[in-house]
Amino acid sequence: MKYTTEVKSFEDVNPCNIHGRNYAALCSKMNGAFVFLLVSTFVIWKVSGQCSGTAESKTVGYTTVKVSPPGYPSPGYAINSNCAWLGSTSISGSVLLFRVTDITLSCAGDAINVYDGTSTSGTQKHTNECSPTSGARTLGYQTASTGNVYTTFTSDATSSASELGFLMYMISASDFSGTGCTSAQSLIATSTEQYLSSPSFPSIYPLDTDCTWDITTTDSNANVILKVLFMDIEHESSCGYDYITITESDDNILFHLGTTTKLCTENLWEPTHTYTSSGNSFHIEFKSDDASAKRGFLLSYVQSETSTAQSSGQSDGDSIVGLVCGVLAAFLLVATAVVVAILLYKKYTKQQKIHDNKIRPTVSSHDQYDNNKNVSYTDSIIFALPECTKFMSQKAVFSEKSL
């Protein structure tokens, strides 16, 4: 465990001002050392400011904000810490959804407390939380109806290598499900970011839910950009219980392909999934079964500024699969047409009787007449058709009269 020394004044570390005297020559020789010392001083001041006894303010929108004590996760928090944070939503009418995870605090004298409000006078959500046994501990989801979360953390004068701290997530939350869980709902993506959520979000979504939304751009040449901001859906390896599906249309010349992504992830706070439609729409479905409901999801959608040539940003390979399938299908179609054309050409040239009077066969010494007075030429003949000139070895049959 590292102990952080507090620097009260910039004068304490300024080599250019020693006992009130200005040593310019000394400074010119120590520029590198002074810059390093200045940066180090700023870092120490920043760490001390977080745990000086005054709450650090955190503005929370629809993107996750994280809180942790200085030193987390390595080398660990300092002894004798007294830290506080105030998280406040930036969206009117929204509540805060939060969760404290990865708690490794000694219960002998270290603790975290969380309140729904702007101070310790608010409703207490977590009281003197620590990790009584070895290993990290995660608390359950909580919501702050006031739109504010006040968190305090204190540590005593002892420490150990296993005391690393904690990690807290916060995000603003509202129910953006609209009417999509009653009947299919059409949504219009514009240049302003909008949001879509599971029903009752951030509360637990209902059982046996079946919701549908269609998101389309106002510009038929633009695309829809979709981001997963939060997700807590019952996990199963094949997403067979509760899940969300995101389907896009790819309106190219030869095919109408749809790429579908199926998601069911628990405790996802980071916006790691971003999708850009190939066309100008997304079809979204959310379904839940009759057990084990979770918190749900929060998505954002916006219309792109310019149209993109193909789908990009799918969940690591989904659109690539669709693109490869389309290319292979197009290749097979073209290859089939070429093969059929070759076969037809061969059949035509094999069965064709030569009638054009412009043809002048070169007769070899192997010519002979049959009983019908037809002459047969078995050597090469030269075709002098207007559209082609080539040598072809074949047997041509002419009547005596035509010759």
Q: If you average the pLDDT, what whole number results?
A: 76
The count of DSSP E runs of length 2 or more, i.e. the number of strands, is: 25
Question: How do the helices and strands follow one another from N- to C-terminus?
Answer: EEHHEEEEEEEEEEEEEEEEEEHEEEEE
Approximate shape? elongated
* Overall SS class: alpha+beta
Query: What strand order characterises the main sheet?
Result: 3-5-10-7-8
**How far is it from the N-terminal to the C-terminal residue, by CA?**
110 Å
Output the number of helix runs. Answer: 3
Q: Measured on Cα atoms, how large is the radius of gyration?
A: 38 Å
Identify low-pLDDT runs: 1-48, 252-256, 309-325, 353-367, 372-403
Oligomer state equals: single chain
* Beta-strand residue percentage: 25-35%
What does the main sheet amount to?
5 strands, mixed
Helix content: 10-25%
